[in-house]
C-alpha cells in the first residue's frame, strides 16, 4: 500500500524551502543572535550594570583576577562555598586569559543561547526530520529562555539548558562518550538536573510491549546506564561530603517556623492556597511561574504560551495519525519527551517528600518543561501547518477536520494574545484584523462551497487566500508573541541592576581593598559589584537555607540596626571597632519614622526594629543623624557616606 505523501514532501511549491536544513538552521541561529543583541544592549548599557543574581553568585570570582579582593569576607566565602565547581573552574579559566568574572558573565549568555539553539534544533530533527519543526522548536525555546532570567544570569541554571540538550541529543544518537561527558558536565554545573538526566537513562531501559513493561535485552545499554549512574553518584558524593562552616540544609520543621518561608516572606514557599502551592508558586509549584501568573481581570488566571497549548495537542495529533500525513516521519526518538517529563515529575515529588534535602522541588520541573514543550510545540505546529498546506491543494474547501484545526488555532492564538488584547489594543489591530478576515472568509467560502455555488476559479483563490493568511497569522503569532507580554513581562527578561551612584563607587574603589562598608541602604548591595569592596550585610543574601550562616547574618543585621539608631556614641563606636567598619552608608531618608519598615523592610527583625521606629517617632537624638554632616565624605541627593574614623574621633559632646 502506497503511503500518503506529506504536503511538505510532494504537493507544495515551497517544498524545497520547507525541507532546506541550511535555511531553517541558519534562521534559528539568526533569532538566537537577535535575542542576544537585545540582551547585550541591556548588559552593556551602563558602566555600572550587573545581573541581579550575579551580585552574589559571580562577584566573588573577581578574586580570580585579584586575590586581594574581599579578604576573609563572610558573605563572599559563603557564595564561593555554594558555587558548583564546574562554574567556578570555567570563570577561573576565563580570568587566566584576561576576562574578569563580571565581563565574562555578560558575554557567556550569548554562547549559552547559541549552543542551546543548536542542540534543540538537532534534538527536534531526531524526533521529526523536518527542518521547519527544528526552527519552530528553537524559536519557542529561545522565547521561553529569554522570558526568564536563567540564561542571562550566567549562573549555574543558565548552563543547564545547553548541557541538558546536549545530553539528550547524544543519548538519541547513541553516542556514548559525548553523552557521558555531557552528563558529567551537568553534574558539575547544575546537580539537580543531573538527577533528572539519570532518571531518563533508567526509563530508557524499559519499553511497553504487549501491555506490560519489559527490560531491554541490550547489554550495552544496561552497562552504559550503570556506568553513567555510578559516575554521577561519585560526583554527587563530593557535594554531600563538602565541608561546611554554614550548617546543614534547613529542615522542614525548621522552615515552617521561619517567617521567610511563609507566603509573605522572602522565600514564600508555604503558600496558603493549595492550588497555587502545587502549580504556580515559586519554588514549590510544578510549573514555571512565568507560564501561569497573570491577572488582567483581578483574579487568578493561567497564561500559557502558545507552545504549551501546541505541546498538549501533540498526543492528540499522534492519536489521529491517519489525518496527519507528516506523522509518518515521526521516529521512535519521540519517547524521549515523555521520559524527560516522567523523570522530572518523579524527582519533583521525591523532593517534596524529603523537603529541602534535594533543594527546591520546582528546580526539577521548570527547566525540563521549557525544553519539552518547546520541542513538542514546534513539532505539533509543523504538523498543523502541513495539514493546512495539504488542505490548500484540495479542490474543495469544506474539509471537516481542517475547519476544526483552523478554528482551534484561532482560539489558541487569541487565548495566547490576551495580554496584548487587554493591555494594548493598538498593537493588536493587525493580528485581530487578520483573524477576523480569516474566520469571516472561511464561513463565506465554506457556505458557498457546500451549496455548489462557488466557481472553480474562486475555490482556488479562496484556498490560496485562506491558506496564506493563516500562515501569516501563525508566523506573526510565533515571532511577535514576546512583544504581547511587554506590559506584564520584560523581554528579554535579564534582571539587570543599574547603579545610580557612580561617585560613590569611584570613591570606594580608590580605598584599601579591605575597607568594610556598613549599610542598611539597598544601595549597599551594589557596592561589592561596582566598587569591589566588602559590605557588612547584603539584603539579597539573607536566605535561610543554611541556618548557621543565616543566624550569623541576622545577628549582623540586628547589631547594625541597633547601632544605626542608637543615641549612645559609645555603643556606636564599639560596634565600629568590633567589626572593623571603615565606612557607613546612609540613605538621606534613613532617619524618617517610616524608613526601617516601609523603605528597607526590616520588620522581620522584631524588637530591634520596633525600638528604632519608637526612637524615630519620639525624635530621640541619634548619633549618626548628628554626625551625618561633619563625617560625610561622599554625598548625593539620595545617599551620604560617612567616614567611620570620624565617628571614632567624635567626642562625648554629641547629644
In short:
This protein is 59% helix and 5% strand. By secondary structure, the chain is mainly alpha-helical.
Write structural notes for this entry.
This protein is 59% helix and 5% strand. The protein has 655 residues and is mainly alpha-helical. It has 2 domains: 368 residues, no CATH class; 150 residues, Rossmann fold (3-Layer(aba) Sandwich), CATH 3.40.50. The strands form 3 sheets. A 4-stranded mixed beta sheet has the order 5-6-8-7, sandwiched between helices. It has a two-stranded antiparallel sheet with strand order 1-4. The chain has a two-stranded antiparallel ribbon with strand order 2-3. A hairpin with a 2-residue loop joins β2 and β3. The radius of gyration is 29 Å and the shape is elongated. The termini are far apart. About 4% of the residues have low confidence.
Keywords:
mainly alpha; elongated
Query: Number of DSSP helices?
Result: 30
Round the Cα radius of gyration to an integer and report it.
Answer: 29 Å
Helix content: 55-70%
Overall SS class: mainly alpha
The tally of domains stands at: 2
| Uncertain ranges | 7-12, 294-301, 395-400, 419-427
Mean pLDDT: 84
Strand order of the largest sheet: 5-6-8-7
Total number of strands: 8
The fraction of residues in strands falls at: 5-15%
Q: What's the overall geometry?
A: elongated
Distance between the first and last residues' Cα? 100 Å
Report on the biggest sheet: 4 strands, mixed
Task: List strands and helices in order, with pairings.
Blueprint: H1 15-18, H2 21-43, E1 49-51, H3 54-57, H4 74-82, H5 85-96, H6 101-127, H7 131-146, H8 150-153, H9 156-172, H10 176-189, H11 191-203, E2 206-209, E3 212-215, H12 219-240, H13 252-256, H14 274-278, H15 289-292, H16 306-319, H17 336-353, H18 366-392, H19 400-416, H20 418-423, H21 425-450, H22 456-484, E4 496-498, H23 502-509, E5 516-519, H24 527-530, H25 547-564, H26 569-579, E6 581-587, H27 595-599, H28 607-618, H29 623-627, E7 632-635, E8 639-643, H30 644-649
Parallel strand pairs: 5-6
Antiparallel strand pairs: 1-4, 2-3, 6-8, 7-8
Helix pairs in contact: 2-6, 2-7, 6-7, 6-9, 6-18, 7-18, 7-22, 9-10, 10-11, 10-12, 11-12, 11-17, 16-18, 17-18, 18-22, 19-21, 21-22
Amino acid at each position: 500500500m502506497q503511503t500518503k505523501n506529506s504536503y511538505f514532501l510532494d504537493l507544495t511549491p515551497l517544498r524545497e524551502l520547507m525541507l532546506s536544513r541550511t535555511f531553517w538552521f541558519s534562521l534559528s541561529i539568526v533569532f538566537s543572535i537577535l535575542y542576544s543583541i537585545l540582551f547585550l544592549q541591556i548588559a552593556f548599557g551602563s558602566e555600572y550594570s550587573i545581573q541581579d543574581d550575579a551580585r552574589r553568585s559571580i562577584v566573588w570570582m573577581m578574586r580570580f583576577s585579584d586575590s586581594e579582593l574581599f579578604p576573609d569576607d563572610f558573605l563572599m566565602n559563603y557564595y564561593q562555598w555554594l558555587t558548583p565547581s564546574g562554574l567556578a573552574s570555567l570563570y577561573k579559566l576565563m580570568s587566566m586569559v584576561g576576562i574578569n568574572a563580571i565581563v565574562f558573565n555578560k558575554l557567556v549568555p550569548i554562547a549559552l543561547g547559541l549552543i542551546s539553539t543548536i542542540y534543540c534544533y538537532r534534538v527536534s530533527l531526531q524526533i521529526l526530520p523536518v527542518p521547519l519543526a527544528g526552527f519552530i522548536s528553537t524559536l519557542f525555546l529561545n522565547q521561553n529562555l529569554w522570558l526568564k532570567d536563567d540564561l542571562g544570569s550566567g549562573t549555574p541554571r543558565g548552563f543547564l539548558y545547553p548541557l541538558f540538550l546536549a545530553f539528550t541529543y547524544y543519548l538519541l544518537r547513541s553516542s556514548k562518550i559525548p553523552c557521558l561527558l555531557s552528563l558529567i558536565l551537568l553534574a558539575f554545573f547544575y546537580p539537580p538536573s543531573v538527577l533528572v538526566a539519570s532518571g531518563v537513562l533508567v526509563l530508557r531501559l524499559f519499553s511497553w510491549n504487549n501491555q506490560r513493561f519489559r527490560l531491554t535485552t541490550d547489554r550495552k545499554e544496561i552497562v552504559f546506564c550503570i556506568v553513567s549512574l555510578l559516575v554521577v553518584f561519585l560526583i554527587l558524593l563530593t557535594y554531600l561530603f563538602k565541608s561546611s562552616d554554614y550548617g546543614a540544609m534547613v529542615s522542614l520543621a525548621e522552615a515552617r517556623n521561619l517567617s521567610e518561608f511563609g507566603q509573605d516572606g522572602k522565600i514564600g514557599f508555604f503558600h496558603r492556597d493549595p492550588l497555587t502551592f502545587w502549580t504556580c508558586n515559586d519554588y514549590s509549584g510544578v510549573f514555571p511561574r512565568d507560564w501561569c501568573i497573570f491577572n488582567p481581570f483581578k483574579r487568578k488566571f493561567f497564561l500559557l504560551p502558545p507552545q504549551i497549548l501546541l505541546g498538549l495537542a501533540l498526543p492528540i495529533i499522534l492519536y489521529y495519525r491517519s489525518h496527519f500525513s507528516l506523522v509518518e516521519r515521526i521516529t521512535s526518538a519521540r519517547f524521549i519527551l515523555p521520559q524527560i517529563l516522567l523523570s522530572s515529575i518523579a524527582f519533583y515529588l521525591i523532593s517534596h517528600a524529603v523537603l529541602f534535602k534535594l533543594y527546591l522541588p520546582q528546580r526539577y520541573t521548570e527547566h525540563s518543561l521549557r525544553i519539552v514543550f518547546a520541542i513538542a510545540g514546534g513539532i505539533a505546529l509543523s504538523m498543523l501547518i502541513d495539514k493546512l498546506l495539504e488542505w490548500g491543494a484540495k479542490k474543495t474547501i469544506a474539509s471537516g477536520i481542517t475547519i476544526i484545526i483552523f478554528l482551534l488555532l484561532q482560539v489558541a492564538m487569541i487565548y495566547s494574545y490576551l495580554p496584548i488584547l487587554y493591555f494594548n489594543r493598538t498593537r493588536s489591530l493587525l493580528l485581530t484584523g487578520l483573524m477576523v478576515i480569516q474566520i469571516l472568509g472561511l464561513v463565506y467560502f465554506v457556505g458557498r462551497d457546500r451549496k455548489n455555488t462557488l466557481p472553480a476559479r474562486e475555490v482556488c483563490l479562496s484556498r490560496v487566500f485562506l491558506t496564506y493568511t493563516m500562515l501569516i497569522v501563525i508566523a506573526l503569532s510565533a515571532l511577535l508573541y514576546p512583544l504581547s507580554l511587554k506590559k506584564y513581562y520584560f523581554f528579554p527578561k535579564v534582571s539587570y541592576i543599574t547603579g545610580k551612584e557612580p561617585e560613590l563607587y569611584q570613591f570606594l574603589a580608590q580605598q584599601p581593598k579591605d575597607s568594610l562598608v556598613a549599610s542598611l541602604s539597598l544601595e549597599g548591595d551594589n557596592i561589592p559589584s561596582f566598587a569591589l569592596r566588602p559590605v557588612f550585610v547584603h539584603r539579597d543574601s539573607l536566605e535561610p537555607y543554611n541556618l548557621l550562616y543565616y543566624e550569623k547574618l541576622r545577628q549582623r543585621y540586628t547589631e547594625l540596626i541597633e547601632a544605626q539608631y542608637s543615641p549612645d556614641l559609645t555603643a556606636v563606636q564599639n560596634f565600629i571597632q568590633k567589626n572593623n567598619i571603615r565606612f557607613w552608608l546612609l540613605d538621606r531618608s534613613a532617619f524618617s519614622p517610616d524608613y526601617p519598615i516601609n523603605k528597607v523592610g526590616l520588620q522581620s527583625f522584631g524588637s530591634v526594629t520596633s525600638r528604632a521606629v519608637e526612637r524615630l517617632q519620639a525624635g530621640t537624638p541619634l548619633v549618626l543623624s548628628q554626625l551625618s554632616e561633619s563625617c560625610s565624605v561622599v554625598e548625593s541627593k539620595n545617599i551620604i557616606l560617612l567616614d567611620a574614623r570620624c565617628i571614632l574621633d567624635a567626642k562625648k559632646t554629641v547629644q
